[in-house]
Amino acid sequence: MSGQRPGRILGLIPAKAGSTRLPSKNILPLAGKSLLERTIVSARKSGLCDRIFVSTENDAVAAIARAAGAEPPFMRPEHLARDPAGVVDVALHALDEWESRGERFDTLMILLPTSPFRRGEDIAGALETYLRLRVDFLMSVVREVHSPLYSLVLEHERLLPLHPEWLNLVGVPRPALVRCNGAVTIVDVARFRQERNYYGYPLGAYEMPLERSLDIDTPEEFAYAEFLAQRHPEWLDD
To answer: Lowest mean pLDDT: which of 68-72, 90-94, 214-218?
Structure first.
């Protein structure tokens, strides 16, 4: 365990302009607000972040962030807006840039804009869990609907069990399998700098319900988000 807990918190929202599978996905409008704006709203509603920072290389995205009440006082370098650069690289750059401006943070929250149904209460709940478990790394997760323990591998129109030891078991308690949903990641800054990864162990989990765990990366997922927003507007953090 390292550093003050939680100390000063940086809420980091990575929002590059480009996207391969869903162009401009971070600023697509969903029920009257862009995905980026919805993430900023949730971060502000949590009331936990000393700074809410949007990391982007694009002036138009930065303008949307400012209008929504977030801070992009500096831009992301172009090389961090292209593959193979990932969120870890973006986060380390943000921490370094803030530090060069005289601001240090003890805890980093990474909030992806592609999780529009995440709420301020999820951010608060994730931090409460992070502190209660006394871990340096935590990710929000959702239960797997279909267990990969029972998956089959398709090869040349033939099926083979991925985990044959589980395939025909009946009456055996199933392990609680989850996947990270991208809504909230919390790390201790000192450990994060040391590991240069947010998969640090012990890794805490904040479980979220399925209806708030959609992570948008394709046109089909965005269309589904539009359906859910129209059908269940109360799920959105407005």
So the answer is: 68-72
Tell me the angle at which helices 120-133 and 35-46 cross, rounded to the nearest 10 degrees. Answer: 50
Q: Is residue 25 part of a domain?
A: yes
Spatial contact of 164 and 155, defined as CB atoms under 8 Å apart:
no
Q: Is the pLDDT of residue 59 over 70?
A: yes
pTM for the structure as a whole? 0.93
| Residues 186, 85 contacting (CB under 8 angstroms) | no
Predicted local distance difference test score (pLDDT) of residue 4 = 52
What is the mean predicted confidence (pLDDT) over 202-208?
97
Which three-class secondary structure state does DSSP give residue 209?
Answer: coil
Query: What does DSSP assign to residue 199?
Result: -
**CATH, residue 13:** 3.90.550.10
**pLDDT one-digit tens code per residue, 24-53:** 999 999 999 999 999 999 999 999 999 999
* Residue 151 located in a structural domain: no
Q: What does each C-alpha distance from 126 to 22, 28, 68, 216 come to in angstroms? A: 28, 26, 23, 20
Question: Which pLDDT does position 121 carry in this prediction?
Answer: 97
> Which domain range does residue 181 map to?
9-144+177-233
- Residues 212, 210: Cα–Cα separation, whole Å: 5
Regarding beta strands 107-110 and 9-14, do their DSSP bridges make them parallel or antiparallel, or are they unpaired?
Answer: parallel
In a domain, 214, yes or no: yes
Of 16, 27, 12, whose CA–CA distance to 58 is shortest? 16
Instruction: Please check whether residue 162 lies inside any domain of the structure.
Output: no
Quote the number of domains for the chain: 1
d(CA 74, CA 103): 13
Minimal CA–CA distance to 236: which of 217, 206, 214, 218? 214
